[in-house]
TrEMBL record:
This is 2-polyprenyl-6-methoxyphenol hydroxylase-like FAD-dependent oxidoreductase. Residues 2-347 form the FAD-binding domain. The keyword Ion transport does not apply. Keywords: FAD, Flavoprotein. The keyword tRNA-binding does not apply. One of its GO terms (molecular function) is FAD binding.
Length: 502
């Protein structure tokens, strides 16, 4: 079997690579050992505003929202409590971009949705390109492509030939090992214990109202609790709890603050990791998602960083395979995405520096007078230390590729968003290839059109007379802005300047 691109791993990032390639008209094969998506280990629960914009770009955002158990307007609050059934200490609103409905800042607000649901939507979009029940066991790269060994759960083996391979095969990546890349970083020493449980009637007993997170600041059992749906399914992280000897039911009851009736559905012990691959690629093999980077979950960045990887790499692979760009363009994937992952790891680690155990105070569990005496100080500490965790749009929407060799000086940022009409985003008007936004009557627009004809690149012109002439990449980032686009498109695709050609 021969394919243009083979994707090792069909989690959300591998599936996003496949969706982006299909969006760009490139065939691929996704090899994934899991036959079915596991709903009992929901992992990520926040799809960021930026990821939702990219899902909108693929025509999938509305499908995700329709199926999400918690509507985007259900809550944007993080509530800090002595226990689920106890007293409220303080709250933080506008969390995770969930309040961006209709905002000029973004085409989409964030969405609270379990990762398995996002995976299901992406699986449907990928269709026959997904091969389940098989996994990549090794690969060999040569000048013309990559020979990939895959094996089924029954032991059958095959070889697939691909021009390029994208390794989205997680922390124990076969792909990463095959190219000789290694993680750099550290693991946090503190253990955590995830639990998914069913608790009929718990929501009706709680005095705190809807929330994205309930942070329990009980020194005897600190942690975070949230709802997976509006029925009876919940998740929690018991912080500082080792797996050995853990009693899930007792942990749930401690967080609830009462001996509630509950059914334990799944458990998952883990330690936070701050890891970054020392390199993202060899000649024809690339790493994305957890195969390239891992960060603590605090801030909700997790797989969202991997979705950004998928789009950045996907359009570049398509440009090379379609003949718009030389293979040199692919080297800019690492140049652009590795610094974003490094910044994300740093931000998530900073968020992890103050968790529920650090905020808990024994007086919060005392009588009303003791509680009220300490509550203002704890509330101030919460607002001071946790604001950046819940309000991180500068990272989510504001990261740039400034300094990349394929963007003009002073650019590289995501194209500033605007609404053109009710429900119609500027992003909806952009093409799948490159776009020119601005006054189409300006001489620079004609010059860009000439470059497009020369290179055979698909281009859409979005006429906005009040916007400076702007060349926008397929991933909605600005490649050039100004009046005289000398070689702007050639630079954006890693072509050598005309003047330097022999």
């Amino acid at each position: 079997m021969d394919v243009p691109v083979l994707v090792a791993g069909g989690g959300p990032v591998g599936l996003a690579v496949a969706v982006e390639l299909a969006y760009q008209g490139v065939r691929c094969l996704v090899v994934e050992p899991r036959e079915e998506v596991s709903w009992l280990r929901p992992r990520a629960k926040t799809t960021s505003a930026r990821s939702m914009e990219l899902l909108r770009r693929w025509g999938l955002a509305e499908r995700v929202r329709e199926r999400a158990p918690l509507a985007v307007g259900w809550s944007d609050q993080a509530v800090f409590v002595s226990s689920l059934l106890g007293r409220e200490i303080t709250r933080i609103g506008g969390c995770f971009g969930l309040d961006l409905v209709g905002s000029e800042l973004a085409a989409e607000p964030g969405q609270q949705v379990p990762q398995p649901l996002v995976e299901e939507v992406l699986r449907e979009a990928v269709g026959d390109a997904l091969l389940t029940g098989w996994q990549v066991t090794g690969l060999r790269e040569d000048a013309d492509g990559v020979s990939v060994r895959i094996a089924s759960a029954t032991g059958e083996e095959r070889e697939v030939r691909a021009r390029y391979v994208v390794g989205c095969d997680g922390p124990r990546s076969v792909t990463r090992a095959a190219i000789g890349a290694r993680y750099e970083g550290r693991q946090d020493a503190r253990p955590n214990f995830n639990i998914v449980f069913r608790a009929p009637g718990l929501a009706e007993r709680m005095p705190h109202g809807p929330a994205v997170h309930y942070w329990v600041l009980n020194p005897a059992q600190p942690g975070i609790v949230g709802r997976l749906d509006l029925a009876d399914t919940w998740w929690c992280i018991a912080q500082g709890v080792p797996a050995a000897g853990a009693d899930p039911m007792r942990l749930v009851r401690n967080l609830a603050g009462a001996d509630i009736e509950a059914e334990i559905l799944a458990t998952d012990p883990w330690n936070a990791r701050m890891l970054l691959a020392d390199r993202y690629a060899s000649g024809r093999v690339f790493l994305a998602g957890d195969a390239a980077h891992q960060n603590p979950p605090y801030g909700g960045h997790g797989f969202n960083t991997g979705i950004g990887d998928a789009v950045n790499l996907g359009w570049k692979l398509a440009a090379v395979l379609h003949g718009w760009a030389p293979a040199a363009l692919l080297a800019t994937y690492e140049t652009e995405r590795r610094p974003v992952a490094a910044d994300t790891i740093e931000a998530a680690a900073a968020n992890m520096a103050t968790l529920a155990p650090e905020l808990a105070d024994p007086a919060l569990m005392g009588d009303e007078a003791e509680f009220e005496k300490v509550r203002p100080a704890v509330a101030e500490a919460v607002r001071r230390t946790k604001d950046s965790e819940f309000h991180s749009l500068d990272l989510v929407l504001g990261y740039t590729y400034e300094g990349s060799p394929i963007v003009a000086e002073g650019t590289g940022e995501r194209l500033p968003h605007r609404w053109l009409a009710p429900g119609v985003s500027l992003y909806d008007r952009l093409g799948r290839g490159f776009s020119v936004v601005g006054d189409r009557r300006l001489p620079g627009a004609a010059a860009l059109a000439g470059q497009v004809r020369e290179l055979g690149v698909p281009l859409r012109v979005v006429d906005l007379p009040d916007v400076p002439l702007t060349l926008v990449r397929p991933d909605q980032h600005v490649a050039w802005r100004g009046e005289h686009p000398d070689g702007a498109l050639r630079r954006a695709l890693s072509h050598r300047p005309v003047s330097s050609r022999p």
